[in-house]
Amino acid sequence: MKKLDVAGIGMTSQRTRERLIRRLQQEGIRDERVLEVMREVPRHLFVDEALSHRAYEDTALPIGYSQTLSQPYIVAKMTEALRQSGPLEKVLEIGTGSGYQTIILSQLCSQVFSVERIKSLQRKAEQKLRQLSVRNVRFRYGDGFEGWPGYAPYDGIIVTAAPEDVPEKLIDQLAEGGRMVIPIGQSYEQQLVLLTKTSTGITQRMLAPVRFVPLLPGAV
Fold first, then answer.
1. Model confidence over 39-59: pLDDT tens digits?
2. How far is CA 195 from the centre of its chain?
3. Rg of the chain over CA atoms, in angstroms?
4. Residue 218 CB: number of other CB atoms within 10 A?
5. I need a surface site. Which of 5, 91, 97, 145 has the fewest CB within 10 A?
6. What does pTM read for this prediction?
7. What is the DSSP secondary structure assignment for residue 215, as one 8-state letter?
8. Average confidence (pLDDT) over 190-199
9. CA angle, residues 176, 178, 181, in degrees to nearest 5
10. Residue 113 belongs to what H/E stretch?
11. How far is Cα of residue 183 from the mean position of the Cα atoms in its chain?
12. How far is CA 39 from CA 61, 166, 213, 217, in A?
């Protein structure tokens, strides 16, 4: 993958970034490529300037519209789980949000297709990735429950908001042997789940208790 163009963007100190990477390692993240990309990507560009001093804390941060930028550990864990079966060619992301998870995926996959239901967030994320010279991501404004069937099937699907049940249309868009990482449940009780599509059906493995914003239907 082409090296990320981060020239002239007000990089934060390397010490601050390394502290976050050490924290992720202590919490069990082992995929060196995921750690390398998270070290490189400028997370402070994906939050409001007033919160940029907190960008490398291991915490979720608000991005407006009642949405959040996920905790770095959760981003790393979801990405690591998606990659466990090997390199990914084509990945679908449901919930572009700030674009931070999107850019992490862009450095690890050949093609990323990202769907966002909030138009203002979708436009802002698309502009941000263009500024960083990311060229292997396609964006779609629409309902995440519908996925993006025009480019299916996908080797991996990552969902960054929580439905109560796994949307059947997303399962349909997963390639055989493909993996989906998705939080499932209601706001007070959610589990991060890894689904793998096999020739005989779907296998499921619980990864961790989590707390995501709900996945809502429609587009706004």
1. 999 999 998 888 888 889 999
2. 16
3. 16
4. 10
5. 5
6. 0.92
7. P
8. 95
9. 140
10. strand 109-116
11. 12
12. 18, 31, 26, 34
The span from the CA of 24 to the CA of 220, in Å, is 34
Please provide the DSSP assignment of 116-134 as one string: ES-HHHHHHHHHHHHHTT-
Give CA–CA dist 16/163, Å, rounded: 34
Q: CA–CA distance from 26 to each of 3, 35, 72, 104, 169 (Å)?
A: 27, 12, 13, 20, 36
> Is residue 185 a contact partner of residue 164, using CB atoms and an 8 Å limit?
yes
Question: Is 13 marked active-site?
Answer: no
Lookup result for tokens 């960083």:
132
Report the b/e string of 133-146 with b at 16+ CB within 10 A.
Answer: ebeebebbbebbbb
Q: Which of 70, 98, 106, 114 is catalytic?
A: 70
Angle at 83 between CA 109 and CA 45, to 5 degrees: 55
* Arithmetic mean of pLDDT over the chain: 91
Kindly report whether the peptide bond that precedes residue 167 is cis, defined as omega within 30 degrees of 0. Answer: no
Best CA proximity match to 184, nearest among 161, 157, 218? 161
Q: Is the C-alpha dihedral spanning 50, 53, 54, 58 positive or negative?
A: positive
What is the token pair recorded at 68? 């959040």
Phi, psi of 180 (to 5 degrees): -125, 130
- The H or E element spanning position 181 is strand 174-186
Tell the residue number behind the tokens 């779609």, with chain if given.
140
CA distances from residue 136 to 23, 192, 217 in whole angstroms, order as listed: 29, 27, 26
Q: Are 63 and 46 in contact (CB under 8 A)?
A: yes
d(C-alpha 198, C-alpha 74), whole Å: 25
The residue written with tokens 């908001």 in the block is: 161
* DSSP annotation of 214: B
